[in-house]
Amino acid sequence: MVSAEVLSIPYVILPGVIIPLYLLICYVLRAKEDFYKKPVYLIFLHICYVNGILMFTMLTAGLFELTERRFEISPNIRPIEITMGALSFWYRSIYTFLSMLLAVNRLLWVFDAYRTRTSNYEVDIYRYCFFLMWFALLVLTLMSNYLNLPFKYEMKQDIYVFKDASHGTQADFYIMLGFMTVAILCHLITTVRLLHLKFLRRSAIDRSEFNIFARILILFAPIVFGRVLRFVINHYLKDYGIFLLIFAFVYRMVPVVNLCSLLYMDGNLRKEVLQKAKRIFHKITIKRGSFIKGQQLAMRVIAIVTGVFYALDFFVFIVPYGYVLWILQRWRQFNNNWSYRIMTHICAVNVVQLGITLPAAVFEFSRTSFSVKLTETLGAIGYWYRPSYAIFLALLAFNRFLRVFRFWPKYEVHFYWTVIVQYSSLLVVIFTVLSGRVDLSFTYCFETNIYYSLNESVVDVEFYCTLSALAVTLFLYATILTRLYYNKYISNLKLSRLEAVILVQAVLAFLPLAILRCTRYFQISRDYIDGNLYATFAYNILYRSLPAINFATLLMCNSALQGILRERLFFGLFKAKQLKQVFYVSPLIHQPISSTSHC
């Protein structure tokens, strides 16, 4: 499913961000006397541990989604699936158990149990519980692999499941239900007691302890919400796969919610974590006895992040784009379609954009542009990319305009010869830069992380050419939507599935560039971007992401192209019969496209 593949991206990225933060919080809770002497923070510490374990299961789930279960080919990967399934089942019960311990802790607090002798045994009881739960984790992990328990990752539900549901999941369900019932009763009693103390006895309530109670309620809320959502889905919405994905996403976001609540509602913990992070950052940034401070440090960090992003953008998408270009050129079903021919040229200019992204990453890492001629040539290509990309989008919109209005001019093909003009203009620009006859002043700006021209005329020509092409495209799409409304509700004419898919792909390819250009056109947004370092950084990252966004929109609705590309990427060379099966079974195209060029 495309939605599951989209969710797999944050599943892979989030663990790299959340796990270091949890490790930092665990260090603070273990090292600071203000925290480790309180029993409630001891429970918070182990909640951070188990949330970190869930982040590992999230990472493997994202990898499984991205690889489309290709891991089953290797039997050596099977133990990872079993282990992660066991960890996922262990997490659900243990997280509920720890939430119950927090509820019991607040119950003891609200009844002043810490003034009695029984409170002396509370920490010992907690430690016995912690020993049992970690011992259970060890036994469950080892025995699951030894007995080869049927833990599987279910792609349709985006979650780990136990195949023998009559035995494994029923016990898991009732254990969680028991812990949740006890926790809810404790929270209700605590709430009633607090209301009694506040409004009847007029007693003062310790604000810090009450904030801990509020934080515990926030930690407990995702469990109740997840169980209710699971019950509703299983009984009323089990036929809708999107709701199962929503449940899996909510379930995997529990550690993120916990992290935000812990840091937001506990000022002391947040202060200690920030101080520790600054110390670590200080040690990393000390080099040769000097410390980079303030704006220079921020710009250096942005440069490193930008360089990493540019390099990843190139290495991740250059090979898939090469395969897509090969497929669009070699397959008759695509090559004989004028819409896909234009998309081929859009992919080609995106490859050109990726080609100048890798040198930009090298510039960011080295903080130098090496050769002046090289920088000017790359800058010229970057300035050529935006208007060319916009013109090809306008051609695609014009193609959809002809299809919707059913215009079949005999000389339609001549409109598409403008692609030769575009590629010729690239050669002219590069020759002009190399000859040095005209000073176009292209350079790489390290402050904004983009190729830039100091010649205002060049900037104005590029800006207004791109804006004009986008304005024409917007007008064509507005006319197309008006015509489609007329055909559907007045003439009772329906758009074919293939033409509808191509129209959606064209609009989705148009929107990102249009939004980015509009933000530079309006004075308010332009001043905000130019005046804010981080806004400039975000804008440039989004601009560099245009090839990635266009690649996603190209594959999003075209399951035939998805199938062919997936086979090429994961299995290398393949047989023609297998490819034909992938193409004709696809839900996008119910029958082969005719060999005419009018689709």
From TrEMBL:
The chain crosses the membrane at residues 6-29, 41-64, 84-104, 125-147, 173-195, 216-236, 242-265, 297-322, 342-363, 383-402, 414-434, 463-486, 498-516. The keyword Transmembrane applies. Keywords: Membrane, Transmembrane, Transmembrane helix. This is Uncharacterized protein. It comes from Steinernema hermaphroditum.
